[in-house]
């Protein structure tokens, strides 16, 4: 196995390498958001009446809401009328039946991103659902999954092919009125992934989605819904990139997970949206609502995220632990450099008896960035014997960045055990010198120290993602020391 | 191998070294002794290239090259090793991974092929057992949760792995009990050879019973006031450092 440091060597010379733009025929809706926009999107997707109504209800609700101001981030006011809410590669009109029919330009884009669909599918045994701007382009390995009874398709298709499932679960974890961005997403979501693992099935492969924002002035509003029935098991990976553009772009996704009795869902994200340039121009606003409901007894939902991109990150993958003995986990690495801002963390809501949750958060700040951990642990009155362990570590590189921790604790059952540990450290000159003295150069030394700091999170990631995450960390922190 | 000429060094404007001269020939062991604050550790740090020291005057030549002009990692690759007085912890990075990266960086620099995982492990086992440590230590994070003795033994292990030309041991004996001291000394002695030199920095003579030096230098107030053979260390042991300042220095000044 070639070492991570070697891989880093090749990468540290670069800045954001996914910043290319793909020149393909796009069908883009002009900027603006009215009921007609919502109707247009719904019609474009030939959606049933109930879904249009659901969207319109969300839209009307959103109109009466205000953007949250409590996160520890600042940005100019977003003009929601200047954003285009739908962009699709034109060839999507006659959707490809197989990979051979996918626009070669598009496949080339994915190849540039390091995910050749075919190869990846064959070699890695990973099924990939690729969402390009707003439309799901190709879903690989569908047949093999179908044999196992697993449904993995774009949510638009799922609406057509499995309306009863979508209708049953959509919005059941994150209601359309949940928050400003979730309401906006509910009104205008254009695509995303749908996964259904039937009772007793262990999904035969890792499922994976790659999100890509390509078009200019578009927002991306995916909606992901994963349902794991009793005794089923699935591991889902999500990766994201976007071209470099001077304007800010909005990404407001919603992810809902439902785990029934004994079901296990592992959801891993490597988020590398364009972070903006060194002076803070451009970059993605990543305002995302992710929530999982452990509805069944002994069910388990595990979130792992590596957040290195975006100008602003606002997300709190959460678990609602309803089933007795259910388990929620949150493992996070958030890296901010230059002018990036991150306000991220989790919510663990303990409702059932003997529910347990674990939170491990690693924040790394460099440049003039700000990195906040915000986490809520809530133990409800009936959650006898609930336990939580939280560990939040922050590492500062340089003296112009900030690390902040906002832990919220609400304990309403006296049998609960809640532990919280927090540390803040500066990357040590002594550590770097120690590694230097053994022949390791500074850039590699920093990568080693930072990767060591994040180890508890990285080991939760599937192997190939862990390697990617380590590489990303090296690139994100390039030039931040010395 | 190493020539230090008239080396003057300060930290934050405060003079620490005031004209050090030192010649280290291949295959020799030099002990540098001296009271606290005499500049012993500064000398070690300057040789290894730690930041924060201002070289005001003088030169250091290592195998014909200007040592002070090299970055710390280049010095390491050229064969300068520092056994730290206070080895730092690096959480989450295993000693195995760290050493493999280090040894391959050094080998690459020397034009040697990198070691495969198997070759590395074999070498590591060979080097670690004589130090009374288990190969399990390799799987632990660098120095994390190590006892004082384990940290020092790990330094000697790293030295054995990297096979330096010049090893500087900065108070490696501090905090060691007699058994650990013997193990560390054995480790050093087994590495002695015709083309490897040592600068052993120590406050106490005790270590020099086990690592017998060819030369002993006494550092006082930033200068080498006295040099001799191993008997000088014994003299110091019985007469104390005060003897240097009270008798040797005044005599030297008076030209006796």
In short:
The complex is a heterodimer of chains A (about 475) and B (about 260). Chain A is an alpha/beta fold.
Describe the structure.
The complex is a heterodimer of chains A (482) and B (256). Chain A is an alpha/beta fold. Chain A is 24% helix and 34% strand. Chain A has 13 helices and 23 strands. In chain A, strands 5, 6, 8, 10, 11, 13, 15, 16, 18, 20 and 22 form an eleven-stranded mixed β-sheet that branches. A ten-stranded mixed β-sheet of chain A has the order 4-3-7-9-12-14-17-19-21-23. In chain A, strand 3 and strand 4 form a beta hairpin. Chain B has 256 residues and is α/β, with parallel strands linked by helices. Chain B has one domain: Rossmann fold (3-Layer(aba) Sandwich). In chain B, 37% of the residues lie in helices and 28% in strands. Chain B has a six-stranded mixed β-sheet, sandwiched between helices. In chain B, strands 2-1-4-5 form a four-stranded antiparallel β-sheet, with helices on one face. Chain B starts with a strand and ends with a helix. Chains A and B meet through helix 10 and helix 11 of A and helix 2, strand 7, helix 3 and strand 8 of B.
List the defining traits of the structure above.
heterodimer, A: 482 residues, alpha/beta, ten-stranded mixed sheet, 13 helices, 24% helix, B: 256 residues, Rossmann fold, six-stranded mixed sheet, four-stranded antiparallel sheet, 37% helix, 28% strand
Tally of alpha and pi helices of chain B? 8
Largest interface in this structure: A-B, 26 and 35 residues
* Unreliable stretches covering 5 or more consecutive residues of chain A: 1-14, 92-97, 118-126
What fraction strand of chain A?
A: 25-35%
How many beta strands in the DSSP annotation of chain B? Answer: 12
- What is the subunit arrangement here? heterodimer
Number of strands of chain A: 23
Number of helices of chain A: 13
Helix content of chain A: 10-25%
CATH topology of chain B: Rossmann fold
Structural class of chain B: alpha/beta
Q: Please outline the major beta sheet of chain B.
A: 6 strands, mixed
Strand order of the largest sheet of chain B: 6-9-10-3-11-12
CATH class of chain B: Alpha Beta
Biggest β-sheet of chain A: count, sense, barrel? 11 strands, mixed
- The end-to-end span of chain B amounts to 32 Å
What is the average per-residue confidence, as pLDDT of chain B, rounded to a whole number?
Answer: 91
- Count the domains of chain A: 1
Instruction: Please provide the ordered H/E string of secondary-structure elements of chain B.
Output: EEEHEEHEEHHEHEHEEEHH
């Amino acid at each position: 196995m070639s070492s991570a440091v070697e891989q880093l060597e090749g990468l540290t010379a670069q800045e954001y390498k996914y910043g290319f733009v793909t020149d393909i025929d796009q069908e883009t809706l002009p900027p603006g958001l009215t009921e007609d926009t919502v109707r247009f999107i719904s019609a474009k997707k030939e959606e049933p009446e109930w879904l249009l109504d659901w969207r319109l209800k969300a839209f009307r609700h959103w109109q009466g809401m205000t953007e949250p101001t409590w996160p520890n981030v600042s940005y100019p006011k977003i003009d929601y009328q200047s954003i285009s809410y739908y962009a699709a590669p034109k060839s999507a009109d006659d959707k490809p039946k197989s990979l051979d029919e996918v626009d070669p330009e598009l496949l080339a884009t994915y190849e540039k991103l390091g995910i050749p669909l075919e190869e990846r599918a064959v070699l890695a045994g990973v099924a990939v659902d690729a969402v390009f701007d707003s439309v799901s382009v190709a879903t690989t390995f569908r047949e093999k999954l179908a044999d196992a009874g697993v449904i993995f398709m774009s949510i638009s298709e799922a609406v057509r092919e499995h309306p009863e499932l979508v209708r049953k679960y959509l919005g059941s974890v994150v209601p359309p009125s949940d928050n400003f961005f979730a309401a906006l997403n509910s009104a205008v979501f254009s695509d995303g992934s749908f996964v259904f693992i039937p009772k007793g099935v262990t999904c035969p492969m890792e499922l994976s989605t790659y999100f890509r924002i390509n078009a200019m002035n578009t927002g991306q509003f995916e909606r992901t819904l994963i349902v794991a029935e009793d005794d089923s098991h699935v591991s889902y990976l999500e990766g994201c990139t976007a071209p470099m553009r001077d304007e800010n772009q909005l990404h407001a996704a919603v992810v809902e997970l439902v785990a029934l009795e004994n079901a296990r869902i592992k959801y891993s994200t490597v988020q590398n949206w364009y972070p903006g340039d060194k002076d803070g121009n451009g970059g993605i606003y990543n305002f995302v609502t992710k929530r999982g409901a452990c509805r069944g007894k002994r069910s388990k939902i595990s979130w792992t995220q590596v957040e290195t991109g975006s100008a602003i990150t606002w997300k709190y993958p959460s678990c609602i632990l309803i089933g007795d003995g259910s388990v929620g986990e949150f493992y996070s690495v958030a890296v901010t450099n230059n002018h990036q801002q991150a306000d991220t963390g989790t919510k663990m809501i303990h409702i059932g008896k003997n529910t347990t949750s674990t939170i491990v958060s690693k924040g790394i700040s460099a440049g003039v960035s700000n990195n906040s951990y915000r986490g809520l642990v809530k133990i409800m009155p009936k959650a006898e014997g609930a336990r939580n362990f939280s560990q939040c570590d922050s590492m500062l590189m340089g003296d112009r960045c900030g690390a902040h921790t906002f832990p919220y604790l609400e304990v309403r059952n006296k049998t609960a055990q809640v532990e919280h540990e927090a540390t803040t450290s500066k990357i040590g000159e002594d550590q770097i010198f120690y590694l230097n003295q053994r022949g390791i150069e500074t850039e590699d030394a920093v990568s080693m120290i930072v990767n060591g700091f994040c180890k508890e999170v990285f080991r939760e990631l599937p192997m190939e993602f862990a390697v990617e995450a380590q590489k990303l960390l090296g690139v994100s922190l390039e030039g931040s020391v010395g | 191998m190493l020539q230090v000429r008239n080396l003057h060094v300060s930290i934050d404007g405060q003079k620490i070294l005031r004209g050090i001269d030192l010649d280290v020939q291949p295959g020799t062991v030099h002990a540098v002794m001296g009271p606290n604050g005499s500049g012993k550790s500064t000398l070690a740090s300057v040789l290894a290239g730690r930041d924060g020291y201002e070289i005001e005057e003088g030169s250091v030549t290592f195998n014909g090259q200007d040592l002070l002009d090299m970055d710390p990692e280049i010095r390491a690759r050229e064969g300068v090793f520092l056994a730290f007085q206070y080895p730092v912890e690096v959480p989450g990075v295993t000693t195995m991974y760290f050493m493999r990266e280090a040894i391959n960086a050094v080998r690459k620099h020397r034009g040697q092929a990198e070691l495969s995982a198997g070759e590395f492990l074999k070498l590591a086992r060979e080097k670690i057992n004589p130090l009374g440590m288990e190969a399990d230590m390799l799987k632990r994070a660098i120095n994390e949760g190590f006892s004082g003795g384990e940290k020092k033994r790990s330094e000697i292990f790293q030295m054995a792995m990297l096979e330096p030309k010049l090893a500087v041991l900065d108070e490696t004996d501090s905090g060691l009990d007699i058994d650990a001291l013997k193990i560390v000394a054995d480790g050093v002695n087994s590495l002695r050879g015709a083309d490897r030199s040592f600068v052993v920095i120590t406050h106490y003579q005790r270590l020099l019973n086990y690592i017998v030096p060819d030369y002993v230098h006494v550092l006082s107030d930033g200068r080498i006031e006295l040099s001799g053979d191993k008997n000088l260390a014994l003299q110091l042991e019985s007469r104390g450092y005060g003897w240097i300042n009270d008798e040797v220095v005044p005599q030297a000044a008076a030209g006796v």
